């Protein structure tokens, strides 16, 4: 479909703001422009907004994908001046002021907002992505969930103790909040939820390894909270390995600091890089691929182009780039939307953005979370309750909040997880297994439970 104008009709004389990406930043910007006398078009490759902070709960079978995704059209339906285009953006022709889509069609703009987020970086080993999915998309989360559950099915059918041990080993690479949350949740899944469901293996004997190349996990938190998280994870049964770089990832395991550890499930949470939006403009990006933006979130040298969220590098008060957090992207989106309205409708100058941190948090497991509010810190049960309240509050949609709260309460009371489905084509981690039940006493992972 070459050269087709995809601007939603009708086109009129109002200024046209095009926002690429309906993540936290793009959506906040569109909402801030909602109800104004500005035409807004939001373009996203997905028809839904994804609440990434709870993605690990989909990967570990607590929530279903639909619990953490909301149709973009529904979220923006209350704003008649906002249109939504489903499409993959491939480039920007700034000379012609057009956003170019993958099918060759285009959307013209007066002002452009790039809010395309980030992707996982495999530090030059892109071939690892298939073996060790990152936690970024619903597809990733479903792949991890399928792999985790499939490993236990295969281990149950295997008669090879070494293979069983490998299948019942999960390695999470990267000790940031996503790695910590994922490792803790996998450990709870194996130690509690799956504990009684198999006959020949004991899921409680499975291993969960959290591998971090740096000296401590949760490096962006104060040391005291890192230590607390490490102790809590150990109590959950997670082996935390710090100062251990991952050297190789193969479908059957990971080489960590010279030692090969066979594993059925490998999850990547080690590093991110910006979306390719900088390349669309041809700007010089930083090492993480981020677009350097001016304090008013404009892209220097590209009049009328703005960018925000994970895909930009904007120094905070301490001079370091602001962290890749939903709250940063959201605040930037709200700010830019209001500033664009004032600029386009009232001729006011674009205002500089100032970030206000509302605290940094990570959940470790049942009853345990950490909060860093700068001067104050919180850990333990209270932090966990606060974490739950905030995340439910931030979920888009009243119905979703109720659903997620109910599921959390159910899980809290019973340890059960309702989304234990192997729904997609999940490649077998190890090809050779046997379907024939084996003598129980030949298995190191056998379940020694009395029948009766
Ligand atoms: C597993 C996980 C857990 C996290 N937990 C937290 C947390 O607890 N708290 C917190 O503050 N932050 C958290 N974050 C970080 C947070 O998700 C990001 O900082 C935030 O999403 C950035 O917002 P954004 O708007 O820049 O990008 P995103 O929210 O990533 O949105 C980008 C949007 O652009 C769209 N897009 C990208 N490329 C294209 C294209 N070529 N064409 C069309 N559309 C495109 C995508 O589909 C997406 O909708 C977490 C991140 C992950 C991955």
Report on the structure:
This protein is of the alpha/beta class. Among the domains are: 16-45 and 87-121 and 272-346, FAD/NAD(P)-binding domain (3-Layer(bba) Sandwich); 128-270, FAD/NAD(P)-binding domain (3-Layer(bba) Sandwich), CATH 3.50.50.60. It is built from twelve helices and 24 strands. It has helices at residues 24-33, 55-59, 72-76, 128-131, 138-157, 161-167, 177-193, 223-236, 277-281, 326-346, 381-394, 398-414, and strands spanning 16-20, 39-44, 48-50, 69-71, 82-86, 89-93, 98-101, 106-108, 111-114, 118-120, 169-173, 207-212, 238-242, 246-250, 253-256, 259-262, 265-268, 272-274, 291-292, 305-307, 312-313, 360-365, 368-372, 377-380. The protein has a five-stranded parallel β-sheet. A four-stranded parallel β-sheet has the order 13-12-11-17. α1 runs parallel beside α10 and α5 packs antiparallel against α6. The longest helix has 21 residues, at 326-346. The chain is elongated, with a radius of gyration of 24 Å. The model is unreliable at 431-452 (pLDDT under 50). Residues 20-26, 43-46, 52-53, 55-56, 88-89, 115-117, 135-136, 178, 275, 309-311, 324-327, 329 line the site of flavin-adenine dinucleotide. Flavin-adenine dinucleotide is lined by residues 20-26, 43-46, 52-53, 55-56, 88-89, 115-117, 135-136, 178, 275, 309-311, 324-327, 329.
